[in-house]
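Hey all, quick one. A colleague (J.T.) asked me to put the shikimate-3-phosphate job into the tracker so the inputs and the structure tokens live in one place instead of scattered across chat threads. No bug as far as I know, just bookkeeping. Sequence used:
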Amino acid sequence: MNIHNTNIPLNPKNIILIGFMGAGKTTIGKLLAQKLERDFLDVDHEIERQHGMPVTEIFKTMGEPAFRKLEKEYVVQLCQHSNGKVVSLGGGSFMQDEIREACLNSGIVYHLDLTWESWEKRCASLVDTRPILQSRSMEEIEELFYTRRKIYADNHHQINVDTLTPEQIVEVMIQQIQAN
Ligand code: S3P
């Protein structure tokens, strides 16, 4: 077989999912990876595994700046070895310049966008496991939501996830990715 005739890219880009907490990055990432027959990697889970404790505990014992440092080191390194994984980033990761640049330069960055109104309906189930939400009032969270949304707008693709099912979202994502 002539290797030049194959359609398999030798060094496929990672597909990197970004978006606010609760947008569905992990659920949709797993489904997308399954449909594309790629590996799935959740950055928070990897950091938890490496440090033997949940993110909430890392925030408590080491503090947020230490978590952000771990996050930066992990993601920047991951981007240096792009190999076609579907990657879910924590919602705050993309705020770091180095992470944003590394992801945009090496991968296909996909923003799972949702409206504030839709997020408000999801927020009750998130608070226990998201230290960022625990120390803030609803007004402060809303401000954070809109500040971050402007940064998430720096992406290759985005989709609004307010009303679509994970199956529908993944179907649209695959069409968009394959069209490029
Ligand atoms: C965070 C989001 C979380 C996790 C950490 C901080 C954030 O990930 O990384 O609690 O700053 O938005 P998810 O977006 O997967 O909830």
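Adding what we noticed when we looked at it: The chain is about 55% helix and 10% strand. The longest strand covers residues 108-113.
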